[in-house]
Amino acid sequence: MSLSQKLLLAFLLCSNCLLAKPKVLIFCKTAGFHHQSIGAGIKAIRLLGEQNKFEADTTTDATKFTYKNLKRYAAVIFLNTTGDVLNDAQQAEFQKYIRSGKGYVGVHAATDTEYDWPWYGELSGAYFGSHPKIQQAVLKVNGLPNDFTKNLPAQWTKTDEWYNFKWISNKTRVVLTLDENSYTGGKNGPMHPMSWYHEFDGGRAFTTALGHTDESYTDQLFLQHLLAGINYAMGRKVDL
C-alpha cells in the first residue's frame, strides 16, 4: 500500500469515528422483583436514541461487564435492575469503566440493587427501603431550573411508585423532590429526593427513582427528564 493510500485509509477511519453515534448499554438484569415496565423502558430509550443521535444496546447478561466491552459505551443505564446482579469480577470491571470517565444512569429500581457493594451505593446515590401503594403525588423542582428540569412545571403531579430510601448520599445534587404532604406513605421528610446527579470516582452519574409504570415511558415530561440524565452521563454538554 502506498503512502497516499495509507493516508487516505487513515482519513476515512478517522472520519467514520467522528461520524459514529455514541452508544449506551441498557442493563436490565433482575435478581429480585422484575418490573413489567422494563420492556416499555427499553423501547422508550431506543426511541430517544433515534431522535437524539445515540444508539442503545440492551442486555441482561452480566458477563458483558468487562472493561473491553463496556468501553464501547458512553454510559450504562441500569433500568429497573434488582438484587445482586454483578459478581466481584464484574464489579471490578464496572468500577474501572466509571473511573475511565464514563457514565451511569439509574432508573427506579436501580436503587434496589447491589446492597452489599458500597461503591455502587455511592454511585447510585441511595438505597431503596420501602414504598406505599402506587398513587398520585406532587414532585417539586429543587433549585433553579436546568436541563434536568427546564421542561417540568415547578410542581409536577404524577402517578408512580414512590420510593422511600433507607440510605441517601449527601454528595449528590438533587433536582427533584417529593412532597410527602401530597400522598400517603412517605418516610424521608421534607427533603425527599427523587432525581439527582453527581460526578463520582472519575465518572458521571444520574439517578431517577421515577419509572415504575408503563405509562412513565410514554410521558414526555418524564422522557425529557430522563434524556437530560442520559446526555449528562454520556458527557454531552448540559446546562447545570
How would you characterize the overall build of this protein?
This protein has 240 residues and is α/β, with parallel strands linked by helices. It has six helices and eleven strands. β10 and β11 form a beta hairpin. The longest helix has 17 residues. It is globular.
Relative strand content:
25-35%
Name of the CATH homologous superfamily = Class I glutamine amidotransferase (GATase) domain
Give me the Rg, rounded. 19 Å
Quick one: how many beta strands?
A: 11
Shape descriptor: globular
Can you tell me the CATH topology?
Rossmann fold
CATH class: Alpha Beta
Whole-Å distance between the termini? 49 Å
Oligomerization? single chain
Q: Please state the average pLDDT score.
A: 95
Strand order, main sheet: write it out: 2-1-3-4-11-10-9-6-7
In CATH, the architecture is 3-Layer(aba) Sandwich
Concise structural overview:
The chain is of the alpha/beta class and 240 residues long. It is built from six helices and eleven strands. The protein has a single domain (23-234), classed as 3-Layer(aba) Sandwich (Rossmann fold), CATH 3.40.50.
